[in-house]
Amino acid sequence: MAICTGCSLLCQDIEASVSEGKLTKAKNLCRKGHGHFQASFSERTSPMIGRKQVDLNQAIARAAEILRSAKSPLLFGWSNSTLEAQRVGISLAEKLGATIDDTSSFCQGSLMESILSGRLPSCTLDDVRNYADTSIFWGADPSNSHPRHLSRFSYYPRGEKRQKSYEEERTCLVVDVRMSATAALCKENLFRVSPGGDAEFIEAILSVLAGKIPRVGDKKKMIELGTMLKKTEWGAIFPGPGLVYSLQGNMEILEKLLARLNEITVFKVVPMVGHFNMRGFNELLREKTGHINRVSFKGGEIVHGPEQSVMTAAKSCDAALIVGYDPLSSLPFATAQALARLPLIAIDPHRSLTTDAAEVVIPAAISGLEAGGTAVRTDGVKIEFEPIIEPGLPADEQILKRIMEAI
Amino acid sequence: MVSAMEIYMLLPKTNCKKCGLPTCMAFAVGLLGREKKIEECTPLIEEKKYEAKLNKLREVMAPLESASETGLIIHPEKCFGCGNCVVACPVNVAADPTHCGVGLGPQSDKVILKVEDGVVVANNLEECKRFGPGRVLCNACTATCPSKAIEFV
Fold this sequence. Notes:
A: alpha/beta; Rossmann fold; 2 domains; nine-stranded mixed sheet; 18 helices; B: 3-methyladenine DNA Glycosylase II, Chain A, domain 3; Alpha-Beta Plaits; two-stranded antiparallel ribbon
């Protein structure tokens, strides 16, 4: 049995056989996971300095040299590393007085902050499978982003209290701007909102729950939604990036909705994290500093704020260490351009635009496939895993430790 | 997927009864249900004037030939491998309640649907509720598919 690190569900029932550097047979892997496993055998990186091949020790020594001489380095990425590597990364940031940030900074950070600080009630996905009779996907399309979400936890499986499952006992609702693949499964329960109209939609739900006529949306349908929510015994809301981006950090309104719903019945929120261990990093950093991301250790002080986010820090820092992420392809042009001008150190198993532009490239073993460790699932459950292939390369954790020793 | 009406439009529409059925519409339904074969419509085969219709009919019927005994067609190129059908199929759940029943990948060999190499594959079709004379029109796998990768004829 292997574990899949293709998304944050960390499916543990994977049977994969690998021979001669190829994935020969895989059972229970979804298409996304299968792609993740298959891609492990192509476009691998090798240690490089200034685009010239070197040996691993030289690359690590050069990386340490860059970080040592930098006045305000930025350490970014982390969502695709194990907890062990993230822990070393945070210590490294502390030692260097660096700024550390992860992908939640421009993704689901505000939602994660609300959940980890307890302002939004949360639960595990196993609770959802066992007790939930209403699942609401809000600005999320798990059929594409977390393909096995509905079949493993939120809609189709039988649970302790939900033996009749989707046939009789579970309802799935989708709030989205479009007819997504998930919405196609419950067409009659799709509530369409206009882009950016989620806050208004929450207000409309609140007025329906207060017995008033809602101002927006199809009034009849909104009243039906209100009735459905009131009749729910145990509900779960899965907010995706669609909702988080639409609310633009205004999590109070979502917290207000959850507080109101919990006066009537039980409602929980489970985030839909993209990268496999983003939540792990958020939890670790919060434990250490009280903040989930965007932290600077400059001068031994812990500073948190928008200036410490990757978007701003990319423009003010003088070197960057990127671990397991490709910001040059995925971040806005201005940020990518600012990063590309810096001496970059990329620790990545795969070739990407970032590794192509990096001053130093350090190849790493792929977590889950070639390296073991611990990761935190999207709902906060810690999952330990063992490698299924003999690693020929050091894991992120070992590389970071060696960099730290060299500094 | 072709409909009975589309097939009917490509038949002679004379209700000659040579195929043994009372009307051409009944024959079209028979063709779709794979109880009848195109060759049983002798006028369509023998008479030159129907040649264009015959060719068109063979063309539209070609995809149905890949269907299994129960009429199941899987389009692997559309499948997400999400396993919704694996968990929803009543036969799968009965065969492997401790895995399929609770959302995990099946461990039993008796299941019909399972996900292999990222896409769904079907085995043991004789167990399917749509198989044999006492069949029921179960649609658990098609109704739960987000990408219409599973179809029944």
